[in-house]
Each structure stands twice: as C-alpha cells, then as structure tokens.
C-alpha cells in the first residue's frame, strides 16, 4: 500500500528569541520523511510565525511510512552563517495506517530540542492517502494494530490467539561511531533519536509481517525494549501476542472487567474477519449503546448474513439460556468450526503451538484453566564475545535458549502455556543478564463460555508451587483435546467476582494443581481445595498476571516487595560472568524466601503480577521482586509464622520471644489492614470439617493455622537476623492509602475507583555504602525512602489507591542505586465499607464523606477539589490544546456542566490523562487510536544553570509527558493507557557540568468518554443525567 | 552548606590532631557529631557567605568537628590541606545530622558545591501540576528550601502524616524546583494560555498568578516613585531590613513592578485594563494597585522625603487613582483617548495654565468673597478669620501647584509640595479634614460662579 503523505505547516507559537539584535526569530520549517526533504518559506521576525503552507506531498512506499517518522524541524534563518536549530517534532505515522484510526493528525506539537528541551509549539496537519497493493512479496505490514495494553482492549472481542511473536533488530549505536567525535552533541543525539525511532518502526513492521503470516490482525501486550549494549550496538526487541480481534458493537464495553453492568451480554459484530490485510472489520462509527439486559435479544437482530455469524450468535443466545436455566453445554461449538471454510486463520490447537508464550496479563474469563506457578529463566552472556555484532543471530540464539528453558520448566509443571510473559535484560559493561519470566498455566484457547461459566466438576485439578514439576494426567490431556476441537471463541467481559460474594463464575479450578499430587518431585504441601473440597491446591500460588476474575479473593490485596542486594567482586569478563551466574540462584532463593515471609506475615497465600528485576552493577547484584498479595479462597489459610532458633542463652531467648510477639502484633495489624479478620474465621469453620484443629494458640482470632504441622517455621540463628527484620520492617502506608502493582486491587470493586488523580514518576538515586555490612542496610533504607517520599507526596490525595506501581531499579555507578517508580493514584470511594460489617481499621473508616474534605484545603490541584470553579474556566484549557477542539469537545463540556451538581466528581476530563493502567476509572474507552512509542534524549552542558541534576531530570520528565500528551491530543484522543516508562538512563558528569538522559515511553492513545453508567452506581448520584452523555444520543435504549 | 576557607583555619590544625587517626575512613559524620542542636543548622546556613575562624567556645565545638573531620579526610586522601576548600555538611534529617563531608582541591565554590550534590537524584513528576499553596507562599516569601521545611515542621506538618523531616525537605525542594520553572511563565502569564509543558487547571493557574503578583504594601511604599533601575534593585536590602520582608520577596516585588511598568508603559488604552489582561490578574484590586504604582513610577513622584514618611501606600494609591480617573487621558472630560493612561492629559494641563487668571487681583477678590461667604456657616470664627487673612497666599499656592503640573520636575514634587505648602499650614491652624474638604469644595465651586474678564 504505497501512499501519499500530505503535510501542512500552519503556525508556531512561543518560539525562543534566536536573534539577539532584534529579539525575534526568522523561522522556517524543514519537513523530512526518510531521505526526502522539503521546506517552508521563512517567516521573518516573529516569535509566533504563521506559515499556513500549502500541502507538502511525499509519495512513498508503505514500508517507509512504517519505518520512518515524519520529521519536522524548525530553524532560524541566518543569511551568513548556518541556520540555527530551534527544535524538532517527530510524528509516528503508524496510527494513520490502521483502518479504524483517525485519518488525520493535527495539533500543536511541542518543539523539542535535545539540548534545550521544549521551545515553543508547532501546529501541523498530517494526512495519508493509501492505495491498495496486493503484492504478495511486500515487506510492509500496514493495518496490523499494536496494543501495549496487555489484555484484550476494551471494546474488542478476542477471536483467535495465534501465539507469541518476537523480533529483534540490531544497529550500531551512533554514540559509539567515529563520527561522534567530531559532531556536536545535538546532532549526535538527534541521530540517535532518529535511529531509535526508525528501529522501532522497523521492528513493528517485521513483527507485523509475522502476525500476517500467522493470520492475525493485531498484537496485544506489545512490549518493546532497547538494549544499549555500548560498543556492540543497540538492540531493540519486541514481543507480543498475535491475535485476531473483533470490534464489539456495544460501546458499553467498559474497560473494567468488573462492572456489574457488564453482566449483560455484549453485542458483537457478527461476521468473521477474513485474514488481513483484506480483513475488514466493520468499524462502528456510532456505537450502539445498550442500557440493560432487556436488550439481549438485539444480538440476533443484528445478525449479518454469513452463516458463521448466525452460528456465533446462536451460540451466544444458547449461552444466555444456559446461564439462566442452569445447565447447558456449548454443543454447537464443533460444528461452528467446520462451518467456516473461509477462515484462513483458525484457532491453532494448543498442542501445535508448542508451549506458547502469552504477553498478556489479564485474560478473558475462561481462558485460564489452571495456574501452575511462576517460571523464570536467566542467563548471563558476554557482549564482547558476539562474533558478528551487527547481526541479530547471536542474540536471537540467546533468547531462544532462554525461552526453551522456560518452556521446559513449564512442561515440568504440567502446564502447556506461559502467560504474563515478559523479558528483561540488565547490562553492565560487557556482561548482559537476560531473564524471562512468566506464569506456567493451562489455558483454553477456545474460550468456551459455558465451560468457564460453570464450576464444572470435570475440570482437571492440580496445583503448583513455583518450581514444582510433574507430568500431565492422562485425563487432563484428553479433556483438552476434546475442547480443542471446538473452534469458537467468545468472550465474556462481565464479571462481578471482585466482591466478596461468590459469583457463579468463580472457578476454583484455576488454583488446582495441574499435575498429579503423588508425583510431586519434591515435598510440597498440598491441601484440599477449600472451595470444592475435591482437588488439591498448593499452599501458595505465585503468578505474573493480574488477578483473574475467576479466583475468589478474600479481604484486600497487599503490596509486597522483596529486595536483595549482594556485593560481588570486580572480576573481568569470564570470571565476572561466572561469579554472577553462581550468585544468581542464591539471589533468587533469597528473593523467594522474602516474598514467602512477607506473604505469610500478611496471612496471604497468593501473589499476582510478580515482577522480578535482576540488575548487574559493577560491584553488586540487585534483585527486586514486586507483587500484590492476596488471600485466595481456594487455598488453605497460611499458618502463623513461628520462630525457631537454637537458644544459647537466656538473653537470646527473651529476644526471640520478643520477636515472636512482634510478629504476632504485626500479623494482627495486617489482618486488620487487609480485612482478613472475620473472613478467615468463616473460612476456618468451614474447614474444620475437613481438618482436625488442634492449634495451641490461645487467642482464637489469632489462630490461623489449621494444625501444628502447617505452622510456618522460621529458623533464626540470630535474633538480629535481617530476614526476620525485613519481614517486619516494611514502611506502612498511611491510613486511607492502598497500594498494589496490579491494575485493580483485589478486594476493591471497580465501582469504588472513582477517578484518576495523578500519574506520577519518581526517580531516586542515592549512593550506597559499598562495604559488606553497610550494603544491605543502606539498600533497604533507599527503598524505604522511596516509599516514604511517595506516601508523603501523595498524602493529600487520600483516600486513594496507588495502582500499577512499577519499580525499575538500576545500578548506574559502582556504588549507586537508582530507582524509578511510576504509578497511578486513583481516587477511591469506600462504598464497600458500610457493607462489610467490620470496619475497625482506620482506612475503612475513611468514608466517602471525608473524600470531599481532603486533608488540607490549601491544595488546589488539577486533580483536587474546587471542582466547581474548574467547571467554568475549563474552556481556557481546551483552548490550550487546540487539537481537542474536535466534536468530542462540546460533548465533554456538556458533561462537565452536568457534573456541577454532582458530588463525586474528582476530575473532569478536560485534560490528557496518562495512566499505566489499561482503563480510565470513571470513563469508558471508546476507541483506540494508535500506540505511541518514543525515545527521548536530553542533554545539557549547563547542568548548574538548570538547577542541578534534579532540576534537569524534573524538567525532562515534565517535557516528556507534555510531548506524549500533545501526540495523544493530536490524534484526537484524551488519554494514554498502558503507559510505561520502559527505560530511563541518566548519565551524569557533574564535574563537567554535563548530564544526559534517555527515556523511552510507550502506551496506547485512546479516546475515552466519561462513563455515567459506572458512576451512576454510586448511590448518591442522580442517574438521569448521564443518559445524555452517549456519543449518539439517538441510539440508546433505556 | 558550610563553606570553609582553609587558609583562615589553618591555625586550628592543632585541633585536628585530636581526631587524627581515630576516625576510620568512610565514617559518616553523623556518627562523629551526635545530635547537634537545631539552631546549629541555621547558623551553619547563615555562615555560607563568609568564611570564618573557629574560636574556642563551646558552641563552636560542632564546627570544629566538621573541620577536623574534613581535614582528616583530606589527609587520608594524601592531599595537602593548603589551597583546598572544605565543603561540608548535608542537613539530612530532623535529628539534624550531617551526613557527608568532602574536601575538594582548587575548585570554585559552585563546582565544589555541586560535588556534594553529586549523584543525588530525587525528583517526583506528575501528569498534573498540583500546587501546595502553603509551600508556594513560603516560596514567594523567598525562604530557602531548608528554612521552609523547618518552618513547615514547626507548623506540625509532620505530626499529622508521620513522615520524617527528610521527606518534607525532599518534597519542599521538589516543589521549589517546580515553582522556579513555573516562574518563567509567571513572569509573562499570558504564556500560560499557549503552553503545553505543564498541565495545570485554570483555577490553580489563577491562584498561582494572583499570589505571584501579590505585593506587600510596605514594600511597595518603599519602591514608589523610585527609578526601577538595577542599582535600586541592588539596594533592596535596605528595604528588606526596614520592612522585615525577606530580600527575595522584595526582589520579586520589585521585578514584578518593573515588568508591569515596562509592559504597559507605552501601551495605549486603560492602564488598569491593560495590566489586568496582560498579566491575567483575576482581581480588580490588584490591577488597580499596579495601575497606581505604574502611574506613580512613570511620573517619578517623590515619596521618600521625610515629610511624606507618614503616608502609607494606600494614601498614595488613593491619590494616584483619582489622578488617573480625573487628570489622565482616560479622564471623563478628556476627549483625546488615543494616548496613554500613564500620562497626564496635555490639554487638561493646558487648561490648568488658565487658572492663573485667578491670581489677578480682581478675580482673586471676587473668588475670595464667594468662598468666604459660603464658608461662614461651616467654619468656626477663628479658622474663618485666619483663612481670610491668608487667603491670597493660600490661593496662590494652590494655583501655582496646578500650574506647576505642566513641568515634570514640579510634578515629581507634587506630594511634598502639597503637604508643605497647603496641608501643613492648615494643620498648624488646627484645620480638620472636614474643614479642608468644605473649603476646597467651595474653592472649586466658586470658580464656576465667577465671571472672568480677560
């Protein structure tokens, strides 16, 4: 599909003064796409030049469109000397290449200069005309959508999963080329930025080709990583899950999989997409809105003529009946698959996929049948040993090796797929540490709703702790083969499972071990599932995914972090690599141990979204694991941690007992905090029929263990043992603030998440005392500081939930640790608290009323109070972002006016939201516009003047966010979801007064509208208002 | 940060031996100096500008320790003590510990200061700009981050949150950096409208601007009528000392006035409106204030004379406002609105020249008669007669004041002349404000009744 790119440069504003004599600027713009360049006239003597140029046209192959960003460069015209650069705008054209996306990019883009930051804005309009080209041998992959979102995007239905896609592109690092010695820092940085951008375009194109080959139409959970290897070049890696998506008709598909509303069946487009690129998904311009379950029938009325469509539809209806009557099977499935010969992209059999890796972290209900546990593989390599550094082969081989290892672990656990898969590297000089992590699982690619809807007793059972190995039961295999025959995929978005009520779709089968209990290769505590009492479950379950709706959790989730730092020698090359690989298992063990301990002291038995990061520093190795713990109902209650130690003296004994007391206190505190008190009681009574309870604890509500043998014993050699201390020494979050790293908090229903308040990025770097004794202490202190700062900074937002918390640790210098934290602060509203009878904890006491009176009235933030004032002045902001003056604008304004009467409005959508989550609380994602991915480089040679390295970093991150917002708004969006700062490298030379920083960010630009429906669940809110918010007022049904 | 000039302190090397070899390398200073008093810190900070010599007194014990330790580190590094600068001390936590000491050879102060900051990155950036206005006020007052944090600590910010001083300080520094970068926009608030770097909601924006342009009357009183030159800016310490307003705040107010003045000086149209729109001020009061200041500054009214020292800014503002509304180009009677508010209406001034006719014997007598007659009832006898005696002189003074407005030099001295030549003589004879008011009213009204013969 070659195309014509049309660019119009309208104007610029706020340009810097480039000519000292006149205090003005003679600006003109160079427009470049690939090698081709054109330019505008010079607009003399103006800081706000108006060019209003004609359309600049570029006729190019789509390969170029995919690879190259459009580059606009504003320069100051100089008659005698070289023109001075003012700033640049890079525009990724890929969003224009996808059919459903906007056909125009228009708006104010910040002019970014790598040496000076943002200097003014440029107003541009970009359009593309594409021609169809059915050349079989083409190299482009236009039309493949990329989603950073690690789940099925809101408003889509997952039709087929094609499997794992990966690609790797290698290039020379311009910074290490000879030419870098003679060129200016600016041109060096720009060369690098351009290269990064081009490589990322290439990578996406190549991945797209692979997806096309597989018959898919989109990539979800797309992760892209840069490895700055230094001398040996730059590697860019991309992984993702190739899928075929179908756009749902129903615009009501709320991003949160938990809104009770979504129990109503969703309408789907009833046609089968033929394989891309000729794939035509009927994009719905005016999404039909269905207000309630009364509309169920409309799903067949919308049926299109293809037989397949009818069948899907029939199946849908069948399911509805099945659900309401109680018993029905998806008998039509087999025939469905046979009835569609047109389909080139049939669902591949799981067996044929050979242990697929899925990069998603949230799955449609029914997708996962069993969770095994976390599998990980790591490998240390030497970069200087690459034979052919320019070629990707060696790196490909490395990764293949690791993935194979991971797959073998998976098989050993009796699972056949890895979900929540991610890859990571850590580079230190010539050492590279590659790691891959995921959760071994059994999945059902066919997503039969009927299966998932019922708690089918025939579902295979099993359980697996991390590092457990076993072979499938024959019975299991058979069952899966059976299911695989069916080729129908359907999705059920709705789920009310996050509340404490047992929803019919709650399925304890997920926790059952996927192997035979008898053939466990090492001792593992298996107990009977406390939900079904039939199958076995492990005592703890670690996963790298978001909490699936099927698993019933009790109480609230807890943020859990384990961290280990170990000094290492400064050996060279081989010796160094050997030392690192020797230490790694110990690090991993310690990390695991810490996680277990912290989990136990919180009386929990499951971990979600476990993210492990291993970092190689010059003189140390760092490992950090972050996860959200929860109490999984099917798993046994965790035992009380008990201390055991050789007691040489009476003194020691006393200390030991004190410690035990402390643990007990802590335990109780945590139980209060996470609301595990009463629930456990209930749990216990129902268990008592199974187990004999002979606990020797006197206080009954403290008693957690179901028997002595289950007691969790901690061996203590020394009462000052750091491991026990670490278990107890977590910085408590302030009352009213909840923390998790998952996208939603177990135990807090989605309806309680009211609005996004603040997306934050915190970068923290400190020196470490590198001595043997000081290291661990300093190390944990640094983390504590990070938490304290975070909590203090966000104290005014209480009550709130910090979710999507992501830690990125680095060891930039010999004795330095750098921590970058990103996360989202979401306003919560505790409408749950009066339901649950026990509200002893301070945080549940934070009622919705106190929500309206934040701690100090002196803070008026964008996200804060004083909403009323904001309403009326809102237009000013809108003017600021000219691009948002689209049709959605009026609508939003109307929205806002209505909200003045509303009490629970935290934030008006008048600005661009950036969030690491896949949803915008209180809003509904209407449309995905395109993924954004850019690498920023910023350098300064006057560090002192910009306020030191802190000032430099603060400014830079602010600018990066500003540019991201500008791009989102130019596409017609108002939010960026699945935001991720994948890289943040700060190089600092304060003696030379220089600093350089590289930041890579990515995310999906979306257009979201305030969701009245979800808010309407809040009792105090008058409902009728929200009806008017729909995009197409004529089509809603009440 | 304490900057220590080593030359001056070499005599203290004896002290050093005390600690010599006892301190293992790498030991943190906080172990060395246990819990110094709170005030040490502020003292330390105040010493930053000058080097000083340690004296043998108990309260200097702390500094000695720092020095000693620094010297020790220096020795350990095998460097000569001579020619090196000792930069020391990081105020670390609420227990006032100092954590780091370094010795740097031959470095300029700033570079040395940076060395200490090296590798300390601590930033927090949000998608939305959230302003803590309590902190913002402190920043506007010109308090450095440390003192500000201490102030907040004293106000009990930490008690309610359970955080440590460390976090408060970090938060403060972070916010101050943000404010400093916002200051670029605040200096030209119209830029807020078309910037995309900061995502600020309009309400916050408004408050930010208003607070930034808020001024202390006492400070402005000192600046009134002064030439807004760099020299005067450098002399703001006096103002600061006199008004007890921190120097940084004085400087900001001075800069604000200067900026507003420079912007609207040459601009046609209503002064107040111009200021309001160009600086996005939400309150009329603030705009009025600046209009008065600009007006006063433009005419360089003398306000610093001792005779005028009892007048407050409000007094001047009242006068300036009246002058703008009645005498300037925006005055109702003025039919030429093209020129600026800042200047007095030329034709009005021309007209004032014609008042000279009142000093002619014939008109003077007639005027006097009218005035005295109408004042008979309202003034007590004594005052009436004294006025009658001095009428000629008084009237002449008033007329010449008006006449003098044509000369910029006399405009400048307008206030002091009015006080000296009109108000003070009347006050000496015991006139009250009311008396004065009626007299002037009559004086003015009488003119209308007069028939003039040219």
How is the topology of this model organized?
The complex is a heterodimer of chains A (1038) and B (454).
Chain A: E1 3-13, E2 27-33, E3 36-39, E4 56-60, H1 62-67, E5 70-76, E6 84-91, H2 94-97, E7 104-113, E8 117-130, E9 145-146, E10 156-171, H3 185-214, E11 218-230, E12 233-247, H4 298-301, H5 307-325, H6 333-338, E13 368-382, H7 393-412, E14 417-428, E15 431-443, H8 449-453, H9 474-485, E16 526-528, E17 536-538, E18 541-542, E19 553-567, H10 573-601, E20 606-616, E21 620-632, E22 641-644, H11 650-673, H12 677-687, E23 712-715, H13 722-728, E24 737-739, E25 753-767, H14 774-793, E26 800-810, E27 816-828, H15 842-845, H16 848-852, E28 859-861, H17 867-880, H18 887-899, E29 913-914, E30 923-940, H19 948-970, E31 975-989, E32 994-1010, H20 1012-1015
Parallel strand pairs in A: 9-11, 18-20, 22-23, 24-26, 29-31
Antiparallel strand pairs in A: 1-4, 1-8, 2-3, 2-5, 5-6, 7-8, 10-12, 11-12, 13-15, 14-15, 16-17, 19-21, 20-21, 25-27, 26-27, 30-32, 31-32
Helix pairs in contact in A: 10-13, 17-18
Chain B: E1 2-5, H1 6-9, H2 13-19, H3 29-32, H4 38-46, H5 61-76, E2 84-88, E3 101-105, H6 109-117, E4 121-126, E5 130-132, H7 133-140, H8 145-154, H9 157-161, H10 165-186, H11 202-213, H12 217-223, H13 230-234, H14 236-243, H15 247-264, H16 271-278, H17 284-298, H18 313-327, H19 346-353, H20 361-375, H21 381-404, H22 408-412, H23 414-428, H24 433-449
Helix pairs in contact in B: 2-5, 8-10, 15-17, 16-17, 17-18, 20-21, 20-24, 21-23
């Amino acid at each position: 599909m070659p195309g014509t790119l049309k660019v119009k440069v309208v104007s610029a504003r706020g340009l810097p003064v480039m000519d000292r004599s006149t205090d003005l600027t003679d600006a003109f713009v160079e427009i470049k796409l690939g090698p081709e360049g054109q330019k505008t006239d010079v607009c003399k003597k103006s800081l706000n030049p108006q060019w209003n140029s004609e359309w600049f046209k570029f006729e190019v192959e789509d390969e170029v469109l995919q690879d190259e960003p459009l580059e606009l460069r504003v320069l100051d015209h100089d008659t005698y000397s070289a023109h001075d650069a003012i700033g640049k705008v890079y525009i990724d054209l890929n969003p224009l290449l996808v059919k459903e996306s906007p056909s125009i990019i228009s708006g104010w883009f910040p002019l970014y200069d790598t040496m000076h930051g943002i200097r003014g804005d440029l107003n541009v309009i970009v359009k593309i005309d594409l021609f169809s080209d059915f050349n079989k041998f083409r190299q482009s992959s236009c039309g493949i959508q990329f989603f950073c979102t690690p789940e099925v995007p809101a408003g889509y239905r997952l039709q087929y999963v094609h499997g794992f896609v990966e690609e790797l592109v290698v290039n020379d690092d311009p910074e290490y080329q000879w030419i870098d010695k003679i060129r200016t820092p600016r041109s060096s940085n720009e060369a690098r930025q351009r290269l990064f951008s081009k490589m990322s375009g290439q990578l996406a194109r190549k991945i797209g080709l692979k997806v096309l080959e597989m018959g898919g139409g989109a990539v979800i959970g797309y992760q892209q990583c840069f490895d700055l290897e230094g001398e040996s070049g730059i590697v860019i890696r991309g992984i993702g899950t190739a899928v075929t998506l179908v756009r749902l008709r129903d615009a009501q598909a709320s991003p949160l999989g938990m809104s009770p509303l979504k129990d109503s069946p969703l309408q789907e487009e009833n046609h089968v997409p033929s394989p891309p690129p000729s794939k035509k998904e009927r994009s719905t311009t005016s999404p039909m809105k269905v207000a309630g379950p009364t509309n169920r029938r409309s799903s067949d009325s919308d049926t299109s003529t293809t037989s397949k469509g009818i069948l899907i539809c029939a199946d849908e209806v069948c399911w509805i009946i099945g659900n309401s009557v109680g018993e029905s099977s998806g008998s039509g499935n087999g025939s469905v698959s046979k009835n569609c010969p047109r389909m080139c992209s049939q669902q591949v059999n799981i067996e044929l996929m050979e242990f697929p890796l899925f990069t998603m972290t949230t799955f449609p209900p029914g997708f996962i049948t069993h969770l095994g546990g976390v599998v990980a593989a790591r490998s240390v390599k030497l970069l200087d040993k690459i034979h052919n550094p320019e070629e990707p082969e060696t790196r490909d081989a490395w990764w293949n090796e690791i993935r194979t290892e991971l797959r073998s672990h998976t098989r050993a656990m009796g699972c056949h797929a890895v979900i929540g898969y991610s890859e990571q590297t850590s580079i230190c000089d010539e050492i590279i540490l590659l790691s891959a992590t995921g959760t071994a699982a059994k999945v059902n690619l066919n997503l039969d709703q009927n299966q998932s809807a019922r708690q089918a007793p025939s579902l295979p059972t099993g359980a697996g702790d991390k590092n457990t190995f076993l072979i499938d039961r024959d019975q299991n295999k058979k069952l899966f083969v059976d299911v695989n025959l069916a080729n129908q995929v359907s999705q059920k978005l709705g789920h009310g499972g996050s509340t404490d009520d047992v929803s019919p779709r709650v399925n304890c089968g997920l926790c059952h071990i996927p192997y035979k209990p008898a053939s466990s290769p090492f001792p593992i505590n298996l107990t009977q599932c406390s939900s079904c009492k039939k199958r076995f479950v492990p005592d703890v379950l670690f996963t790298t995914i978001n909490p699936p709706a099927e698993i019933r959790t009790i109480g609230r989730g807890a943020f859990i972090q384990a961290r280990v730092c170990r000094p290492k020698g400064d050996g060279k090359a081989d010796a160094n690599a050997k030392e690192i690989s020797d230490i790694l298992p110990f690090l991993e063990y310690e990390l695991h141990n810490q996680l277990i301990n912290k989990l136990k002291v919180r009386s929990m038995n499951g971990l979600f979204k476990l993210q492990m990061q291993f970092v190689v520093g010059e003189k140390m190795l760092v490992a950090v694991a972050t996860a959200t713990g929860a109490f999984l109902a099917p798993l046994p209650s965790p035992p009380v941690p008990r201390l055991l130690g050789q007691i040489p003296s009476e003194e020691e004994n006393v200390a030991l007992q004190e410690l035990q007391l402390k643990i007990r206190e802590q335990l109780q505190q945590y139980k209060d905090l996470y609301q595990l008190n009463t629930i456990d009681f209930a749990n216990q009574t129902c268990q008592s029929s199974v187990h004999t309870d002979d606990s020797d604890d006197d206080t009954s509500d403290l008693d957690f263990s179901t028997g002595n043998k289950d007691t969790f014993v901690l061996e203590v050699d020394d009462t000052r043992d750091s491991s026990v201390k670490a278990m107890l020494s977590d910085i408590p979050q302030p009352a009213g603030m909840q923390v998790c790293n998952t996208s939603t908090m177990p135990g807090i229903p989605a309806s309680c998440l009211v609005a996004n308040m603040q997306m934050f990025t915190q970068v923290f770097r400190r020196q470490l005392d590198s001595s043997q004794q000081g290291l661990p202490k300093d190390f944990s202190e640094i983390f504590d500081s990070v938490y304290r700062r975070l909590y203090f900074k966000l104290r005014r937002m209480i009550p709130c939930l910090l979710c999507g918390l992501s830690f990125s640790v680095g060891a930039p210098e010999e004795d330095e640790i750098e921590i970058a934290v990103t996360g989202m602060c979401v306003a919560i509203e505790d409408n749950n608290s009066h339901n649950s009878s026990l509200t002893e904890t301070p945080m549940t006491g934070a009622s919705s009323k106190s929500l309206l009176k934040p701690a100090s009235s002196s803070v008026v933030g964008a996200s804060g109070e004083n909403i009323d004032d904001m309403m009326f002045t809102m237009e000013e902001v809108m003017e600021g972002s000219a691009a948002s003056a689209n049709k959605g604008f009026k609508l939003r304004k109307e929205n806002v006016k209505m909200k003045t009467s509303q009490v629970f409005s935290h934030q008006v959508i008048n600005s661009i939201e950036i969030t690491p989550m896949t949803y915008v609380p209180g809003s509904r994602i209407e449309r995905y516009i395109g993924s954004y991915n850019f690498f920023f480089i910023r350098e300064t040679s006057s560090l002192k003047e910009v306020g030191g390295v802190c000032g430099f970093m603060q400014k830079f991150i602010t600018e990066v966010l500003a540019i991201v917002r500008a791009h989102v708004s130019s596409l017609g969006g108002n939010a960026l979801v699945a935001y991720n700062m994948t890289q943040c490298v700060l190089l600092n030379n304060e003696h030379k007064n220089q600093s350089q920083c590289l930041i890579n960010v990515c995310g999906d630009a979306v257009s979201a509208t305030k969701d009245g429906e979800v808010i309407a669940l809040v009792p105090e809110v008058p409902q009728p208002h929200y009806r008017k918010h729909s995009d197409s007022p004529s089509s809603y049904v009440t | 940060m304490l900057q220590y000039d080593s030359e001056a302190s070499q005599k203290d090397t004896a002290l050093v031996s005390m600690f010599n070899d006892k301190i293992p390398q790498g030991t943190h200073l906080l172990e060395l100096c246990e819990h110094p008093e709170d005030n040490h810190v502020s003292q330390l900070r105040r010493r930053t500008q000058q080097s000083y010599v340690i004296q043998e007194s108990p309260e200097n014990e702390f500094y000695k320790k720092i020095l000693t330790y620094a010297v020790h580190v220096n020795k350990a590094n095998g460097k000569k003590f001579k020619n090196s600068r000792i930069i020391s001390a990081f105020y670390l936590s609420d227990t006032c510990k100092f954590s780091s000491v370094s010795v740097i050879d031959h470095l300029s102060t700033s570079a040395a200061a940076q060395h200490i900051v090296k590798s300390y990155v601590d930033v927090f950036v949000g998608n939305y700009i959230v302003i803590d206005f309590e902190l913002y006020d402190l920043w506007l007052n010109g308090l450095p981050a440390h003192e500000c944090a201490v102030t907040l600590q004293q106000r009990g910010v930490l008690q309610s949150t359970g955080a440590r001083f460390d976090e408060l300080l970090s938060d403060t520094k972070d916010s101050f950096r943000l404010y400093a970068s916002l200051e670029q926009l605040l200096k030209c608030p119209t830029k807020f409208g078309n910037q995309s770097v900061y995502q600020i909601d309009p309400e916050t924006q408004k408050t930010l601007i208003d607070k930034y342009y808020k001024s202390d009357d006492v400070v402005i009183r000192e600046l009134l009528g002064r030439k807004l030159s760099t020299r005067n800016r450098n002399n703001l310490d006096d103002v600061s000392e006199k008004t007890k307003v921190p120097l940084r705040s004085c400087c900001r107010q001075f800069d604000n006035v200067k900026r507003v003045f420079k912007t609207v000086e040459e601009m046609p149209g209503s002064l107040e409106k111009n200021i309001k729109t160009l600086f996005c001020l939400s309150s009329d009061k603030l705009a009025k204030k600046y209009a008065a200041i600009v007006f006063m500054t433009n005419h360089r009214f003398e306000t610093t004379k001792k005779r005028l020292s009892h007048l407050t800014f409000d007094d001047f503002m009242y006068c300036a406002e009246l002058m703008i509304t009645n005498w300037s180009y925006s005055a109702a009677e003025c039919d030429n609105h093209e020129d600026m508010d800042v200047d007095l209406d030329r034709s009005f001034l021309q007209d004032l020249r014609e008042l000279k006719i009142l000093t002619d014997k014939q008109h003077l007598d007639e005027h006097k008669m009218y005035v005295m007659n109408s004042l008979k009832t309202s003034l007590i006898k004594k005052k009436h007669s004294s006025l009658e005696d001095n009428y000629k002189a008084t009237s002449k003074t008033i007329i010449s004041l008006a006449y003098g407005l044509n000369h910029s030099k006399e405009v400048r001295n307008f206030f002091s002349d009015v006080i000296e030549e009109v108000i003070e003589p009347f006050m000496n004879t015991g006139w009250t404000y009311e008396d004065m008011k009626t007299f002037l009213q009559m004086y003015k009204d009488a003119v209308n009744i007069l028939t003039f013969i040219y």
